[in-house]
Amino acid sequence: PLILWAEAIATACFTQNRSIIRRRFNKTPYELINGRKPDISFLHVFGALCYPKNDREDIGKIGAKGDIGFFIGYSADSCAYRIHNRRTKKIMETMNVLFDELSAMAFEQRS
Fold first, then answer.
1. Interatomic CA distance for residues 56 and 85, integer angstroms
2. Which long-range contacts (CB under 8 A, 24 or more apart) does 65-74 make?
3. Which of 4, 13, 46, 80 has the fewest beta carbons closer than 10 A?
4. Is the pLDDT of residue 46 over 80?
5. d(CA 49, CA 51)
6. Would residue 31 be called left, alpha or beta, if left means φ above 0 and alpha means ψ between -120 and 50 degrees?
7. Burial level of 108, CB count in 10 A (0-12/13-18/19+)?
8. Exposed, middle or buried: residue 52 (CB in 10 Å: 0-12, 13-18, 19+)?
9. Which residue numbers delimit the Retroviral polymerase SH3-like domain (predicted)?
10. Which DSSP symbol is given to 66?
11. Which residues in 53-88 are b (16+ Cβ under 10 Å) and which e?
């Protein structure tokens, strides 16, 4: 959706600053600013299908424990992920997420 363009740009900048090496210094922009190598183990594919744990609502005994959403970025304030929830149509920040990046890649292979 058009409303997620700002999220896409912010996520691209976040990823680029941690992955592209500046030839002159042989370091990433993150290394030049912070003086240490970035941890990239938590990076995920933008738009990947994911399942955030439903930990904010009272779900009862038989309620859904998770929702379906799309990964749209990283939190600026904490080590959480930003997720566009398909059910509520809202952006949420949470650390409790299961990612399904392979289904997005399989979709791209078919088309």
1. 13
2. 66/98, 71/44, 71/45, 71/46, 71/47, 71/97, 71/99, 72/4, 72/7, 72/8, 72/11, 72/46, 72/47, 73/7, 73/8, 73/10, 73/11, 73/14, 73/46, 74/11, 74/14
3. 13
4. yes
5. 7
6. alpha
7. exposed
8. buried
9. 49-104
10. B
11. ebeeeeeeeeeeeebebbbbbbeeeeeebbbbbeee
Please give the Cα distance from 58 to 77 (Å, whole number).
Answer: 25
pTM for the structure as a whole:
0.79
